Amino acid sequence: MTSPSPSPVARPRRVPLATALVVGAALVSLATIAVGAILVLGGRDIGAPLPPFLFRFRPDASLLSLLAAGVLAAGVLGARRLCSPALRPALFVVAATVLGLALRLSLNASREGVSDWWIFFDPRFGEGTVEYLAALPALDFGVPLFLDRFAETASALPVHAVGHPPGLLSVVGLLGIETPPAFAALIIAVGVLAIPLVYLLAHELLDDDAGARTATLLFVFAPSAIIYGASAADALFATLGTLAALLLIARRPVVRLVAGPAALALATFFSYANLAVGAWGALVVALREGPRAAVKVAAAAGAGLVVFYLAAYALFGFDIAGSIATTEDIYRVSIARLRPYWYFLFGSPVAWLAAMGIPLALYWLRAIAAREAAAVALAAVVLIAAVGGFTKAETERIWLFFVPLACVGAAAVLPRRRLVLVLSLLAVQAFLMQHLLGTVW
């Protein structure tokens, strides 16, 4: 009589990486928000009223809210038609850009009216007292002298002017902009141009027109892009960063190694944070083509920065090293001193992920698990930025230039059949954020 064979031992089921990433991110986010709430309720000021966000709970609405809701709904309903192959790419880009502009303008005007397009830049009120137009007296003797003396005089400028390179103020001086509506028009007009650039960037990386359209629409409906797209200079910085990203990963060597570094240098002249775009571009190339190609991109980007800032010094006396040192000094004694590194190590990525749109964040995490180059490279850059503590808090706004890159990554894994559902959820989140929360922008 034969003895029964032992039953096979069941192997433990492996949790898919995508599920692990999503669940892990959700748990970290909930824990971060809970710890922030405990700190604030306990009376500790950590430099964020609703940590890890700079938002405040401030419900408000007006009759214009109905218009904003209608524009959001119409945009979602029209998304399927915009993705139809029957609609030529050029017409899609135009339509998506117009839709993005309509969403930004309508939603930003839905609380207090059209004055919310520029009130945040008015040097007479609130945040405007430390924004760019409050620094206009520094341009009284012309842009060349402003650049020549920037490193020495920046510490006397409003915090937003000293916290960034002089690129934006130089443009303001050259264009003769003096009023908040004119300044807002510049920000809104340049900011919305990120939409066609996202389409081109996605087309370059995904080699798929349907994927490029998906990425573009994700960016059009991303809550932080809508909310800050008509009220913060970071929208302009995001456009410049997206242009640099597009050129740095282009297939043609002359574009990648000449135009890309030039665009990156220009972008950093407006925001130091755009240096991260250079790192993202090199990492994407490394993942797609190997380390040798990435070294070429990194070397070209570095050389472009050196040439650009040496030329700025030779022509205008602009001292980039002195300017960064001044910014660092001011940053250390600003509100950043209240913000604990240990908290915003997690809080900064959490705020950025949640504000750009929870559905978008979920698919970006899934793209990381799928080892999509654009998503993996961005994850590395976000991790470096968080660990480096370059920005603590306000990242729902400051990291706006990362959102186009996240949209490209997410589009690589988002099933087309779920696009309308995802856009609907993003639209609802944007509407609720705008009407339940308030920021200084």
What would you report as the Rg, rounded to the nearest angstrom? Answer: 23 Å
Following the backbone from N to C, one meets helices and strands in this order, namely HEHHHHHHHHHHHHHHHHHHHHHE
Q: Kindly name the structural category.
A: mainly alpha
Uncertain stretches of 5 or more adjacent residues: none
Using DSSP, what is the number of strands? Answer: 2
By DSSP (H or I, 4+ residues per run), the number of helices equals 22
The order of strands across the largest sheet is 1-2
Report the sheet with the most strands, covering strand number, pairing sense and barrel closure: 2 strands, antiparallel
Mean pLDDT: 94
Count of the separate structural domains: 1
Q: In percent terms, what proportion of residues is strand? A: under 5%
- Principal-axis shape equals globular
Terminal CA distance? 83 Å
Structural features, described:
Helix 9 packs antiparallel against helix 10 and helix 18 crosses helix 21. This protein is mostly helical. The chain has one domain. The chain is globular and about 60 Å long. The chain is built from 22 helices and 2 strands.
